[in-house]
Specification:
The chain is an alpha+beta fold and about 425 residues long. It folds into three domains: about 1-190, no CATH class; about 215-280, Single alpha-helices involved in coiled-coils or other helix-helix interfaces (Up-down Bundle), CATH 1.20.5; about 285-419, Histidine kinase-like ATPase, C-terminal domain (Heat Shock Protein 90), CATH 3.30.565.10. It contains twelve helices and eight strands. The protein has a six-stranded mixed sheet with strand order 6-7-5-4-3-8, covered by helices on one side. Strands 1-2 form a two-stranded antiparallel sheet. A hairpin with a 6-residue loop joins strand 6 and strand 7. Helix 3 packs across helix 5 (about 115-140) and helix 8 (about 190-245) packs antiparallel against helix 9. The two termini are about 45 Å apart.
């Protein structure tokens, strides 16, 4: 099941006055102008879709549908983006996946996909009430220009209408923009049932990934134990046994073997400690999440500012996931960003642990190509966590993560430290 989550996005300012108000209304008018321009493709797609489903048994109907359905999704997604920019929140989409299916299988999935039928209904709204609302917001500006031309060419009395039209545009544009965006959200957003289905699918996928990750960790631990600590302990036992046999006949050789056994023992301990750090760093148990992150920041060559506002301790699994997430983000900042400084903030509000890691480097960070950030996303998803990456070319890079969790008894007080 394909889906996009409804995250917070930058919202267009709607009500400011002065120059900011003018710029905001011009942008809103441009957005609604795009809606008006999309009237033609929406009309064509609606007609093609209806004809395609009506003639689906015939080859021509199938061809029309395989052209119209993906294009309809793209047009609907454009409206989701436009509406989300006005409302300040993404308009989610939940489409049933048809990957790996043949033409008949894809058509069957489309036929049962409520989101795609909702898109078709939205096309009908877009060419009727939707374009009417958008046109009302767009018309005043060309009308004012037309009145100015008429005033110059025909009669100056037309000048009196220009302030009226511009006042109407100034007052009504934000209202019409919000009305259009709200209508788009109501028609294009998934129903509660679909949203629950998406959540179940996400949780199922996350659980499967977590199980795979846990199985891989177990295999890694078994391999490390077998190749590292276990092999050294076997060698240690052999050396001690030989030393016992030589104790009476050759004490010097026995002493040398025991010294070597001590070295092997220390190496085995180091292997075990390294293995433990990879599972749950001891610093977490000793100092908690805040202290562990501050200790991590002090070890880096890059200056890192750590700000903490936690009134308690997250659960141990969440704490470990958060620590490794911060470690991965900071490692990326040191290795790849070319940054001069970085910062980390930890805060807990309304039952959500918020983590932000940023740097002033060159930007361009993504979760593509099996990067470490993709692993962070999978680790957080196991706790219903989310990650948002803002990393434009030229920087800065800001990675925002949230994990729902409760805190235990207070152990950490608000603090700020520069490493």
């Amino acid at each position: 099941m394909g889906s996009t989550k409804g995250e917070t996005v930058d919202r267009l300012p709607v009500w400011p006055v002065g120059r900011a108000g003018l710029e905001a209304r011009l942008r809103l008018t441009a957005y609604l102008g795009v809606h008006v321009l999309l009237f033609v493709p929406a009309l064509v797609l609606l007609a093609v879709t209806l004809v395609g489903w009506a003639t689906a048994p015939a080859l021509i109907g199938a061809v029309l549908l395989f052209a119209a359905v993906p294009l309809t999704q793209r047009v609907a997604n454009v409206h989701r983006v436009l509406g989300g920019r006005i409302l300040g929140a993404e308009i989610a989409a939940v489409y049933r996946s048809h990957s790996g299916r043949g033409p008949l299988g894809a058509a069957w999935v489309w036929l049962r996909d409520r989101t795609r039928w909702r898109d078709v209904g939205f096309l009908a709204f877009s060419i009727t009430g939707g374009v009417f609302i958008s046109t009302l917001a767009v018309l005043p500006l060309p009308a004012a220009v037309s009145y100015a031309v008429l005033a110059v060419v025909i009669n100056g009395v037309w000048w009196a209408l220009i302030p009226v039209v511009l006042t109407v545009w100034w007052v009504c544009t934000p209202l019409l923009a919000q009305a259009r965006a709200s209508a788009d959200r109501a028609l294009l957003s998934p129903s509660r049932t679909e949203e629950l289905e998406r959540r179940v699918a996400d949780v199922t996928a996350s659980r499967a990934e977590t199980l795979d990750h846990s199985a891989a960790d177990l295999r890694r631990i078994e391999r490390d134990l077998h190749d590292g600590a276990q092999a050294r302990m076997v060698s240690l036992g052999i050396q001690i046994g030989l030393a016992k046999e030589l104790m009476s006949s050759d004490p010097e050789a026995a002493k040398k073997l025991l010294e070597e056994a001590g070295d092997v023992n220390r190496s085995a301990i180091d292997d075990l400690q390294s293995l433990v750090r990879g599972i749950h760093p001891p610093v977490l148990a000793d100092r908690g999440l805040a202290g562990a992150v501050e200790a991590l920041a002090l070890q880096l060559s890059l200056p890192v500012t750590v700000s903490v506002d936690l009134t308690g301790q997250p659960p141990a699994p969440v704490e470990s996931a958060a620590y490794f997430a911060v470690a991965e983000c900071l490692a990326n900042a040191v290795k790849h960003s070319g940054a001069h400084r970085a910062w980390v903030t930890l805060a807990h509000q309304d039952g959500v642990l918020g983590i932000t890691v940023g740097d002033d480097g060159r930007g361009g960070a993504t979760m593509n190509g099996g990067s470490g950030l993709a692993g962070v996303a999978r680790r957080l998803a196991a706790f219903d966590g989310t990650i948002i990456i803002a990393s434009p070319s030229g920087g800065p890079t800001i990675v925002s993560m949230e994990v729902p969790c409760a805190l235990s008894s207070p152990k950490t007080t608000p603090s700020s430290e520069t490493a």
